[in-house]
Amino acid sequence: MLKLRLKRVGRKGSPAYRLVVMENTVRRDGRPVEEVGYYNPISKESHFEIEKIQKWLNYGVKPTEVVSSLLKKAEIIKN
């Protein structure tokens, strides 16, 4: 099953995350199917490729709880 989830990048003490589509059995920092955005929790900076995210959501990919809340804040998905 494919999921829309976060992949951690960055060094120790300063995390950053990439928003990726990957199989749910793959480890957190494993190889993604596609990268569709990024999120930096320290600077609150984020960038999402809306067309790609909508495409994957239409294919039936389920976002995790954290990703779902980020997409709701960015008004990409509705409540």
If you had to describe this structure to a student in words, what would you say it looks like?
With 79 residues, this protein is an alpha+beta fold. The chain has one domain: Ribosomal protein S16 (S16 Ribosomal Protein, Chain: A, 2-Layer Sandwich), CATH 3.30.1320.10. The chain contains two helices and five strands, in the order ββββαβα. The protein has a five-stranded mixed sheet with strand order 4-3-2-1-5. A hairpin with a 2-residue loop joins strand 1 and strand 2. The chain is globular and about 35 Å long. The protein starts with a strand and ends in a 6-residue tail after the last helix.
Question: What characteristics describe this protein?
Answer:
single chain, 79 residues, 5-stranded mixed β-sheet
Q: Give the H and E element order.
A: EEEEHEH
Fraction of residues in helix: 10-25%
Gap from first CA to last CA:
23 Å
From the alpha carbons, calculate the radius of gyration and give it in angstroms: 12 Å
How is this fold's topology laid out?
Layout: E1 2-11, E2 14-23, E3 34-40, E4 45-48, H1 50-58, E5 62-63, H2 65-73
Parallel strand pairs: 1-5
Antiparallel strand pairs: 1-2, 2-3, 3-4
